Description:
The structure holds 2 protein chains of 2 kinds. Chain A is an all-beta fold.
Amino acid sequence: DSGVTQTPKHLITATGQRVTLRCSPRSGDLSVYWYQQSLDQGLQFLIQYYNGEERAKGNILERFSAQQFPDLHSELNLSSLELGDSALYFCASRGDYNSPLHFGNGTRLTVT
Amino acid sequence: GQSLEQPSEVTAVEGAIVQINCTYQTSGFYGLSWYQQHDGGAPTFLSYNALDGLEETGRFSSFLSRSDSYGYLLLQELQMKDSASYFCAVRGSGNTPLVFGKGTRLSVIA
Lengths: 112, 110
């Protein structure tokens, strides 16, 4: 158990809809990262937060947004969903810069 | 930016040794990491090399050559449970996010 909690585990929704994925980092970790993993693809970095502030943005679509709350949990909002958004979405956290990433078990999103 | 290349698939026999190579291009370099991911599971950290040379952790070892922008993961005494995808990853600096390769799918056969 990595200590990173993601909910829900599975999400099935229709095109055009909006969903929210939730992540609770390991206790004490201030940094949260969101990654997308499509079939047979690597982990694509989406966005990073540190102690409530956005720190880095990757290949995140404008339809996607995220935030990190004062209690350090983070939410990834995906809107106007398309079939191609179907993927595994991982959240990860880490302590200091020399620490490895600890990943949650992911949310599997299926858009139909 | 960063880019990484690693083989897409490798097959090896139980009990054997396998090496998974990774070459990278990056502006700035803050170490090469390796992660393991079983089907349907979360990526888990295996090893990290910041300096040239070999790091050993049990049956797994990781090597880095910064001058060649190259590293590898060595798995010894392969077990069926080692069947998984293995990702190399780099960071350009300490506070930048990890960029992952597309992963190498290792199949261990009897």
